[in-house]
Every structure is written in structure tokens, then in C-alpha cells.
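User: Here's a chain of 339 residues. Predict its fold as C-alpha cells.
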Amino acid sequence: MNLSQYNTLRLPARADRVIQIDSVNQLSEITAALGQTPRCILGAGSNVVLHAPLAATVLLARIMGRSIAEDGCLTAGAGEDWHTLVMWSLEQGYAGLENLALIPGTVGAAPVQNIGAYGVELSDRIKAVTAWDFKNKKLIRLNASDCGFSYRQSIFRDPATQGPWDQPRYLITEIELQLRPLANAQVEINYADLKSAFAHRAKPPSAQEVADAVIAIRRRKLPDPKEIGNVGSFFKNPMVSQLQAKHLSLLHPDLPQYPAQASHHEQCKISAAWLIERCGFKGARRGDVGVHEGHALVLVNHGGGTGREILALAHEIQQAVVAKFGIFLEPEPIFLPQR
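Assistant: Prediction complete.
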């Protein structure tokens, strides 16, 4: 089966077959039927690069459902659209996800890479993850502290816990998020773009206004996957030592730098987009693939591109950045099949 409709880069990889999972009640039977044959999990395909045929059964996580309790605990099925959930939570009178508006993908995929934007990460809001454990053939509930969250990372992405790409241990079925009533919300607007958006304001913006600003910024900077194939940011912002960050800032005073999390206080995060742009790749094109003209961090499929061409361009960018700045850029998306 052609998987071009199941990934936002619109890459034409093929799989042995596809099974859609609409209910947790299917999982026991599917597990028994698959046995030890290769399997692979996909959400909306908004964070994967399919660069070769998948000799596996693709499991589409499409479990729906959402609810929110009076204490602000939001529960959502893995198949729910992430952005729709963010806006729904605001409509229900709860804040906390507004900085994560317009991130493409499903709810079930969000914990895998610990999605984050504009100063907020999913790990700041998540309470627990429910997942099907293929090894023990049962549903388990993992508290946030059990998920190994860090910058764009979790146990669901770590081969040491999740296993190889074609024998994943966990399939996320549901997540729980802790939100706050709008009246008690403390919005996060310390990120540069949001600071600029509200610089004229004497009073803090509402959560809805933050969401609207984030949506406007993302639409201005990032291409819509429905219009041109992409997975959003292709590379992580690299973490460097404070000493290296100071050295780079002396050589390049305009290099954007961001504070790291408290757990990485000896490090500094720098802008991958800036590094790529300074290497001359913004707007570059290699056949049917290229770098978006509006944002150097976004690799795009202009139509007819292949996963191998995307990987070749990514490798070219990595080599150039290492040669010019001595920094290795780590990709954000998952490559399937993994090499």
C-alpha cells in the first residue's frame, strides 16, 4: 500500500499492509495476529521521513475521545488532532496549551518527541500516558516522570525502551494533561516572537490571545503541510556548552541563543535555522526537494520528491554546518525504516 497519504512530506513509500486502530479493544487481537512479524506505528505522519519501503504492517492509531474534568485534567485519545484539542480546551475554559497551537499531528504522537514551541513543552503539562504494551500484552499507565521526557525526546522514541522501529513496544492510546481554568492562567510570553507580539500591551494577554498570536506567527513563518509537503522543523536547535556559546557570540553577535532548561543549566540552545541560513541553504532546491524560502529549518517536497532525496539534502546541510560552525545538527523527525 502506498503511504503518501499517511505522511505530511507526501513521500511515496510503500508498506506491506495498513491496519487502522479505532479502539483499545482491537489491540489484544491484533497483537496475537501479528505475533513477531514486523509492525510500525504511525499517527498523522507529521514527524516521519519515509525513505524506503516498509516491510511491515503499519498500525494507524486512530483512537478518539476527549473530556475535561473540573480540576482541569484533560483526557484525549491518541487519534485526536492536536491543534483541534488545543483550541477545544480553550473553548472549555482551560488554559495551558495555547503556546502549542497549530502544531500538526495527532495527540498520540505528541509525547513521542515531547512537542514544544514558544517556551512550552508538552512535558510541562502532561500528567500521564496510557499505552498498549506489546511485550506484556496489556494496557499500562505511565506517569509523566516515567516517560523520560527531555528536549524532543521520550522513552517512546528511545530504542533502549521502545525497541527497533519494526518491533515497537508501546503504542500510545491516551494521554492526560493538567490545565488551569482561564481565570487562574499564567501565560508564557517570554519567547522572543511572543514578546514582540505583545510589547505594546500594559496587561498580560489572555490565553486565547496567546494562541491567536502563536497561530499568526506559525502561519507567517511555516508552510502549511496541506499546501506543500513538510514535517515542520527538520532539525533540533543544538545544545552547546556555555563556553562554546560565548565563543560563537563573539564571532557572530547576531546568533540567536536561548536559555536551556534548568536540568541543562550549563548548556545553551542556539538557533539551527540561523546556522542553516548562514550556510546559504534558505530557499535552496535540489530537484523536487528543497529548503523553504520562508524558514531555513523546514525541508519541503515540491512534488515528486523522494525520501532519499530529502535525506541527501539533510546530510548536505549537516556537513555544511559542521564545516562552518563545528556543530552537528540532529534531525527532529524519525526516519522509517530506521538505519
